[in-house]
Amino acid sequence: MRLIGMLDSPYVRRVAVSMRFMGLPFAHEPVSVFRHYDQFADINPVVKAPTLVTDDGVVLMDSTLILDHVERLAEPGRRLTPVAMPDHARSQRLIGLALAACEKSVQIVYERQLRPPEKLHQPWVERVHGQLLAAYGLLEAEIGSGDELLFGERPMQADITLAVAWSFTLNMIPDLVSATDHPVLARFTARMEQLPEFVATPFD
Q1: Considering the entire predicted model, what is its pTM?
Q2: Out of 6, 23, 155, 166, which could bridge 159 as a Cys pair, Cβ 3.0 to 4.6 Å?
């Protein structure tokens, strides 16, 4: 399988880290949707990262849909979605909050980096910032002490997505979200980032 996209995208990194935890081999191709637009379009005309090309040549996109597919390829003991319904519901909630925070972080980054300063709409940025803080505030309150994994003895998709999202936010907009104000998230993510699967997939 071929994973297309840069690891500075939290969505690409989420898929790459998850596939490492599932033990699924893949080739990562760091093609940028900005700097290598034509090259990316040759693979996926929609130019959406991440893109996954399956062994059969099927082109998939959207991190959640890609992960839904590749999890079916993993050995049952290495899948990342809880089986028990209460755990599944909690996992989906935490993933949803982390992805919401990720989306709002990306929106702010795009506002700052792609929109001309005179076109920046500050009320919109403030609204998105409020949504970002709401998502991280709920996660901070719901994941315990930050010293333990969320669903037992091995990282699951909620652990991975939360850590990837938080790392992206702190790397890209540290002036808007403070680790001091979110010590649980900071502690949890620091532990996750030390795991071999994360170390092998650095944000860059």
Answers
A1: 0.96
A2: 155
